[in-house]
Amino acid sequence: MEINEHHRHTGRAAGPEPANGALAALTRRVGGPVLVPGDEGYDAERSGFQVAYRHRPAVIVGARSAADVAAAVGFAGAQGLPVAVQATGHGLSAATDGGLLISTRRMAGVRVDAAAGLARAEAGAVWGQVVEAAAPHGLAPLNGSSPGVGVIAYTLGGGVGILARTFGFAADLVRSVDLVTADGRQRHVTAERDPGLFGALLGGGHGLGVVTAMEFGLVPVARLYGGQLVFGEDRIDEALAAYLRWTETVPDTLTSSLALIAYPDIPQLPESLRGRHLAQIRIAYTGGAEEGERLVAPLRAVGPRVGDDLREMPYAESPTIHQDPSDPHAYNGDNALLSDLDADALRQVAALAGPAAPVMCVVQLNHLGGALAAPSATGSVGHRDARFALRLLSPLQGADLEAAREVHAKMLAVVAPWWLGRSVNFLFGAHGERADAAEVARSVHGGALRRRLDRVKAAHDPENLFRFHPLAGGSSD
User: What is the reported pTM?
Assistant: First the structure.
């Protein structure tokens, strides 16, 4: 299913058709493919993990190097074409229609300097590569739950990972960013060389250029105690209340989330999941298994569990904690960063997302705080004081987008008393084209932070070349 409403209502000029001579010159300059509609490979190149929304660019450049990216940006500027960027397409939230798409998936190099505790990832690298490269050295990145998510866009949006309460946002460990800005220049950006641009990139989202590589710190984590506790329908209310109480007691070395999923009764699912409404508590603890067992005892006391796979594991097995889907699919979602939450409100959210919901809803409540709440000297992550992140997602295959938005809005209304704003990394859908797009942007970065980001944007992209993003520009991972 492909959603096209954001193409019908953008109100943006698609840009002129590029001249054949200029296109031929670009093709000669870059090492990767240059594709236009009708070319073999065009549809595959523009598609990503999120299949509800697809780019419809006038030109695609499959970049193989930073020089290719610079050539593509220079071409786009000369031709008056807006630019979007895609690595994996997980977080596609605004698609380019008639502009130039830079596909960075061929730039997938990863290098680890174990002695320095650093990693360098190119624009198309995914977290699974970094985890694999760092693990033999007893090191880990601040990756998210899915190994297939791209490193760059995740980090530019802040990056709340499975070690977040212990070590903070992924953006907090970035040392340098290699960037192509709207003028086609390649820049090596650090806090010392350009503190304004560096800080705006880290948590400010996208829209300031095309990141071609990033260097960031690793943390000394070789093993975890983690996994899932899964409760069935008869224990959901008790599990919700117990989880909220439990988050008030756990140390910063424990990061967790609660997921609520009402599985449809379809043959594609394992029999144990069909038609079930389940609560899954996901845990990642950097301490030992014995202490981990003591910490989770209040959750196990809720009662019998449908599943319980808590164990000590090598960090390389951490994707098994969340078991995120790996196949491309269509979805839409929203989120809220919350100062707090009570059990009654969480039960209301669970009921709205349950089996009676008009569309399937996946609800995830992330426990924040800990190192995430520490102030940043350089970055631009908003709402660091949030205690929880409520994430809402609905698969759209065969479902109505408006029905999903309506039920998400009802759930957000329930948690309104604790509302602080949104996280850009958890905006799953065409938020950049919504009537309330400006409000969405303000909810991510408000007040003085929003004004500072706007000044950096005006200085480095005055023509808004990188405009395809819910925050008024940029790439989609």
Answer: 0.91
